[in-house]
Design a protein that fits this description.
By secondary structure, this protein is an alpha/beta fold. Helix content is about 30%, strand content about 15%. It has two domains: about 60 residues, Orthogonal Bundle (DNA polymerase, domain 1), CATH 1.10.150; about 300 residues, TIM Barrel, CATH 3.20.20.70. Strand 4 and strand 5 form a beta hairpin. The chain is elongated. It binds S-adenosyl-L-homocysteine (SAH) and iron/sulfur cluster (SF4).
């Protein structure tokens, strides 16, 4: 494990942009799927026979070029641009602050409508990088090791707010194409993981629509194999994820008995390990993808024994899988400790010898609290008490 110097220099700039007034009920075009965009254009007075062409033109401006101004859509007539401006807006979350870690990780705090805040994290790696995005403000689930789960306030993000996180990160990384410049095939945002705040499968429709926009080949153009959705195990939505999104799947597995998983991931009481594994068995075939990532947070003396490792490989037998071991990210008041490094390695070794890749997730951006499970809006003050967290953990 690479450990970063504790008191690392942090650059933090606060880019508070003035909030635009919500003028006259104009509809936001960001986050609409192609059929929704076309229907909206028709409803605003675009002749039906032109609608498909207009949809394509506007789509390119928004998602290929990253344009934010109808006035600059130069392949549309002046009158049509005015019509668009009258009926629509191009509205993205606002950056409240941006922190850059010594290791290059960037954490964005974004303000969305209603004054709520969500976080997105960009993790660079060898000229490419992964953007970790949120699907909800907070989370209705209460996994006992997760900081987001202690946040009381919850609201689903709209498709616009989910796509918006990708667009804002592209702005910040200056990654929109320049007209006339040769296509740059190495992308700074090469992968997306839905591993920020929230349970994506409890906001299924908006997540699906947002990913449709992100995957579209004439826009942001990230292939479905470069998108990983992480779920705590919302079984009824897993087949739909394969069929309607088709991205890669990661599952927050974290325990090898129902007794322990009930405590760590309480949604296990609804869909237990056997039920979850049944749904996962079908996923690779339904989504035509290779393997499922099993996420496993390493909690000292809770789920990290050799016996756990052996049970884990027994359980997932027959499922094409990779096991991602996550050293627990501690947060103030957390009722657990991170497993010792030697223990994590011994666990990884057993899994590896059973024939599964067992990478240990290197903590990134520790100096800016950018790690999974630590994302929690800074202004959210309504917190559960320590006693309540401990009680829910069954401690
Ligand atoms: N709600 C979804 C996605 C967001 S959480 C899910 O649970 O899968 C993303 C990942 O971070 C999950 O595997 C989650 O279990 C893990 N995680 C949460 N809190 C953590 C912590 N404190 N340390 C390490 N991993 C954590
Ligand atoms: Fe929600 Fe995932 Fe955290 Fe559980 S681990 S509380 S599902 S964000």
């Amino acid at each position: 494990m690479t450990s970063h110097p504790p008191a690392a220099p942090i650059t933090q700039d606060v880019l508070t942009l003035p909030r635009k007034a919500d003028e006259g009920g104009r509809r936001n075009l960001i986050g609409l799927t192609r059929p929704q965009l076309r229907a909206a254009l028709i409803a605003a007075g675009t002749p039906e026979r032109q609608a498909k062409m207009r949809e394509g033109q506007i789509w390119q401006w928004l998602y290929h070029w990253g344009l934010r101004d109808f006035g600059a859509m130069t392949n549309l007539s002046k009158d049509y641009r005015a019509l668009l401006a009258e009926h629509f807006k191009i509205d993205l979350p606002q950056i409240v602050s941006r922190q850059v870690s010594v290791d290059g990780t960037r954490k964005y705090l974004l303000r969305i409508n209603g004054g709520h805040e969500v976080e997105a994290v960009y993790i660079p790696e060898d000229g490419r990088g992964t953007l970790c995005i949120s699907s909800q403000v907070g989370c209705t689930l209460t996994c006992s090791f997760c900081h987001t789960g202690t946040q009381k306030l919850v609201r689903n993000l709209t498709a616009a707010e989910i796509v918006g996180q990708v667009m804002i990160a592209r702005d910040d990384l200056d990654e929109w194409p320049e007209p006339g410049a040769p296509r740059n095939e190495t992308r700074l945002i090469s992968n997306i993981v839905l591993m920020g705040m929230g349970e994506p499968l409890y906001n299924f429709d908006n997540v699906r629509d947002a990913m449709k926009v992100v995957m579209d080949g004439e826009g942001l153009s990230l292939s479905r194999r470069r998108i990983t959705l992480s779920t705590s195990g919302i079984v009824p939505e897993i087949a739909r994820t394969a069929e309607e999104i088709g991205c890669l799947l990661a599952v927050s597995f974290h325990a090898t008995t129902d007794a322990v998983r009930d405590r760590l991931v309480p949604v296990n009481r609804k869909w237990n390990i056997a039920t979850l594994l049944d749904a996962l068995r079908d996923y690779p075939r339904l989504s035509n993808s290779e393997r499922i990532t099993f996420e496993y947070v390493m909690l000292k003396d809770v789920n990290d024994s050799d016996e756990d490792a052996r049970r884990l490989v027994q359980l997932i037998r027959g499922i094409p899988a990779k096991i991602n071991l996550i050293p627990f990210n501690e947060w103030p008041g957390a009722p657990y400790e991170r497993s010792d490094w030697a223990r994590i390695e011994a666990f990884a070794d057993i899994v590896h010898k059973a024939g599964y890749a067992s990478p240990i997730r290197t903590p990134r951006g520790e100096d800016i609290m950018a790690a999974c499970g630590q994302l929690k809006s800074a202004t959210e003050r309504a917190r559960k008490s320590r006693a309540q967290i401990a009680a829910e953990a069954g401690a």
